[in-house]
Design a protein that fits this description.
Layout lengths: L2 H4 L4 H16 L4 H8 L3 H8 L7 H11 L3 H5 L3 H6 L1
Helix pairs in contact: 3-4
Length: 85
């Protein structure tokens, strides 16, 4: 369900953004250099990590390459999220 449809943030976008932020921090990247490396502005990265913007497929590929992880590591729900569904 999209943000516009329910009046709030899309939980999937929030989860993916939080995962991206966690992986970025674990790899030691600060927001500015990471955003620059994947070709976006720091405010745009902040919006993705906060769940206000969707992580597009192109940006997913760039982020995964920069973080040296598989794309699924960013997109896959945590095991406890799947078990609760």
């Amino acid at each position: 369900m999209r943000k516009e449809e329910k009046g709030g943030l899309d939980p999937e976008w929030v989860r993916v953004g939080a995962t991206l932020r966690t992986l970025r921090e674990l790899r030691g990247y600060k927001p500015d250099p990471f955003a620059s490396q994947i070709g976006i502005s720091r405010p745009y990265l902040a919006n993705i990590e906060a769940g206000r913007k969707k992580l597009t497929n192109v940006l997913l590929a760039r982020a995964a390459a920069a973080l040296a992880v598989e794309q699924i590591a960013i997109m896959r729900p945590a095991a406890e999220d799947v078990a609760a569904a």
